[in-house]
Amino acid sequence: MEYQTEHGDEPTDEQLSAYLAQKDMRGRGGQPVSPSTLRRYFLPSRVYNVWAEYRMRSEQPPADDVAQECADRGITAQYNKPSTPSYITENAADFERRWQALVRRHTAAQQ
């Protein structure tokens, strides 16, 4: 999200690897995180961002609405398959954990 705020768009895997290295966030052995490793997280991250927008308005974002919003934004799974409500539902617990962790972090930074 920080990269997007600074650059105005989503990074490629290689751009994100370099950016994280500049922020001293590195992978094993102190090397930059591999772009191939980062690619695995692009879809969940993009879907989470949409889910989080809905989470600001509702404690249980409707999976159908989140999936439709992903489709509207061109967020697709592997082979350009749409993000489905079942994918959203399967990941909802992880999304909620991330949401709670970020809320705690943001709250602590405000104090």
Structural description of this entry:
The protein is an all-alpha fold and 111 residues long. Helices cover 66% and strands 0% of the residues. It contains five helices and no strands. Helix 2 (13-22) packs across helix 3 (35-55), helix 3 packs across helix 4 and helix 3 crosses helix 5.
Cα end-to-end separation: 22 Å
Uncertain spans: none
Mean pLDDT level: 91
**SSE arrangement, N to C:** HHHHH
Which percent range describes the beta-strand content? under 5%
Number of helical segments? 5
Shape: globular
**Count of strand segments:** 0
Going by helix content, strand content and strand pairing, the class is mainly alpha
Walk me through the topology.
Layout lengths: L1 H6 L5 H10 L12 H21 L7 H10 L12 H26 L1
